[in-house]
Design brief:
- The complex is a heterodimer of chains A (205) and B (210).
- Chain A has 205 residues and is mainly β.
- Chain A has one domain: Porin (Beta Barrel), CATH 2.40.160.
- Chain A has one helix and eight strands, in the order H-E-E-E-E-E-E-E-E.
- Chain A has an eight-stranded antiparallel beta barrel.
- Chain A is elongated, with a radius of gyration of 21 Å.
- Chain B has a single domain, classed as Double Stranded RNA Binding Domain (2-Layer Sandwich), CATH 3.30.160.
- Helix content of chain B is 24%, strand content 24%.
- Chain B is built from four helices and nine strands; from the N terminus they run H-H-E-E-E-E-H-E-E-E-E-E-H.
- The longest helix of chain B has 17 residues.
- Chain B starts with a helix and ends in a 7-residue tail after the last helix.
- Classes of the chains: A mainly beta (205), B alpha/beta (210).
- At the A-B interface, strand 2, strand 3, strand 4, strand 5 and strand 6 of A face helix 1, helix 2, strand 1 and strand 7 of B.
- Strand 4 of chain A pairs antiparallel with strand 1 of chain B, so a sheet runs across the interface.
Amino acid sequence: MKSAFAVLVIIGTAFSINAQDQFERYLAVSWDVQAPLSNTNYIKGVSMGGFQIGYRERINDHFYMGFDYNTMIFTQHDPRQTYYSSSGDLTTDFYKNAVVYAGTLSGEYQFSPGKRIVPFVGFGLGANYNTYALYYNIYASKDNGWGAMLRPQAGAIIKLGQKQSWGIIAAVHYDYSTAKSVYFNYQNFTTIGLRVGFFFTQLFD
Amino acid sequence: MRGRVTLLFSLAILLILVNCDPKPTLETRVKDMVVKTIADISSNFSTYSTYSLAIDTVGVFWSFDPDTVITDDYAQLVSRTVKTNMDNAGYTRVGPKQKPDLAVNVFLIRGYGVDQTFITPNYYLSHPGNYTYTYSGYGGYSPYPYIAPVYTSSTQMLIELIDLKNIDAQQRVKIIWTTFAGDVDASPDPYGKSKEAVNQAFMQSPYIKK
């Protein structure tokens, strides 16, 4: 009970502390966890294999702009089984993967830029390139494709350190890409994700 | 400014390298053979009674060398496993001059491109199934999507049931059942896994029954 109270006090205090200065820019490197929402017949489940880098420059007191680049890899192994269809019956196991490379121009609105904890909402618009592969025995089926990407996100920046020049950044994001693959039956590529990482505000000074 | 660009570019390259195509190892993938069977759905397999089969002999199609036959332990194992399954299905083996209803051919296909042997899982991916695969072979232009062997000396086992009972006026015959199984050479146990593949082919084709 005491520890819970202490956590509440720390969080409350954090919101009430003013930062020394509002930073001009930051670089963030994050680990990204995502789950696919489209074509889950092919790949489903949470993937831990994502990374993201982001960069922001201050436009005004609340608004920052920059870009994000991220990669994500989804994998799945389907155990050996027999698939029946009118065009033939197949017994095999499948190793599937989809790899996403995405870059977006991003803007974010920070609600309390002077505080130690800074909630934000953001939006990214860009493009992505996906590769798809299906391995079975010595054979492989592959496809790839480009698409436009939209990425709304919401999260928070937690400033740490004496100068508050670095800290933790976390955000949930929804990625919608128009990238298609007729062969792999993707009409779009949509995911939901959580990224957690570090940001640095004085890396270039 | 230059330092920022260099740093960001380096990080982006690092992320690309981290997330390249995570291909599983060959050893992981070839533990069991892929078995695909295709049947002529217009055929009624119960109308056939007899078959002919070359025991202890397997034909070999080579992509570059002359075709041949093998009569070794492998041929003996595979052909006799086919015979066992045909016998268990209720058919009777007869000599080729005794007018069999079915001819059973067993081949190995060495070195041909995968598109030539049609082991494709496209139906499984909810594809309509009328897509034309284009793979122009080794060293050629291979537009996406493509299917390519990732093992240079592929060998697949082919089993055919040919209808000799309904030869048409032009003396043409119809192949009513085909099995593709592979890869034989990449398998860590080509004998055991080939026998398993033959049994699997008949198991997933319960319509082959007298």
